[in-house]
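ok so for the tutorial part 2 we go from a plain amino acid sequence to predicted structure tokens. step 1 is just haveing the sequence, like this:
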Amino acid sequence: MSALRRFTRDGALLAGGALASRLLQAAAYALLARMVPASDFGTLALAAIALNALALLPGLGLGTALVARGDDPRPAARSAVTAALLGGGAVALLALLIALVVRQKGDPAVAELIALLGVALLFQGPGVVAGALLDRERRFGARVAADLVGGLGYLLVAAIAAALGAGAKALALGLVAAAALQSLVALRAARLAPTLRLDRAALKAPARLGSLLLLTALLQWAFTSADLALIERRFGRDAVGCYATAMQLAMVPAGALGLLSGRLALPALVAARTRPDGGGRGFLQASGIAALLAAAACATMVLFARPLIDLLYGANFAGAVPLLPLLALSAFARVLGGLAGPALLACGGARVACTLVAAQLAVALPAGALVPAEFGAGGVALVFALVQVAACAIAFALGSARLALPGAAALRASVLPLIAALGPALLLAALARVVPLAPRATAALGGALGLLLLLLLGRVQWRALRGAAS
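step 2 — the prediction. this is what the tokens look like for a chain of 470 residues:
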């Protein structure tokens, strides 16, 4: 089987699994939004600020470091699982200490969720290492199975707990069940178990790269959490709940395509480093396909934000309507940045990626704090979205340069689908200022024309893939 055919087959498997997993997650949120008030979602979002940072620590960056290695990572995998398990226990204790501090400061609801979610950290680290090994060996069927089992566990446990009146704790219990099931299935599929003796020599090189990746991930966590903290401080808990809910919906396509970039693009680029073009041609084709899919999702959320929010979450989350288009644009940029990350890592650009994330945080945090109060949470969302778009564009340009791609071709592959998806709707909206047109009809017609243009672009991409395969 040719490399391109295998890439296409693996991509189809991951795309199907990612779509099923994200739809399952979206269905769970839609169900729980009718059982749990918006303020409880806001409480969970605030507890997740601390837990999302701690969740990066048990794996110690070893998962991605194992994938990025050019040699066989399995000799170091058992030691990595042991290190991740020990780190998970230590971080779970740290979560308990943080919960005690938060309780003393007068927020017992957030403190309870932090302590409860800390249990999930015992499972996440080993699961990350096992999943990374499955990615490196391109055993994506087992990886998809682990994700789906975790998603089902979240849906069942959270729904049952919410029906019993657990409130915000139901959301946390679902996340604990998902982490445990996903990790156990991944460890079983990878045939990994902890070892009583750490092989320090085998862990030395992955640990060095893993520490840099961990720093990058922590900086990225600070960026993605700063907007929540600013909104909660200035606009209240309900605003955080609406913002977090809109973010969850906007990131459905970004999360699904992020699975493709993290699980498929990085192993493929590492394997392609021995080829004359270094994998640049495949990266360009993958970027075009990912941008095409992300542009379709982005246009849908921009043009039909209100119907989507009303259908999925109900009237209690009406405040999420103006936030969804901004976050959808940010999600599109994150897809391109998610492709640029593997390109930089495969070419030894981990320090460049870390510097970009640090600069992103240094710009967005003070700018978001200066947003006038009358703009509300949407003003903060706009600032963070623009900063992320700029940072991801730079990362994509640098990743393309590392792979020696022509700048015009990389720009065309990344931006053209978004222009095609939103261009007709924007032109019709401008025309509606002169000629009276119904807003819903304008959005529907613009969306239909954008979809037609995307289908034409998709046909071109498909022909290019078939030509390369033959």
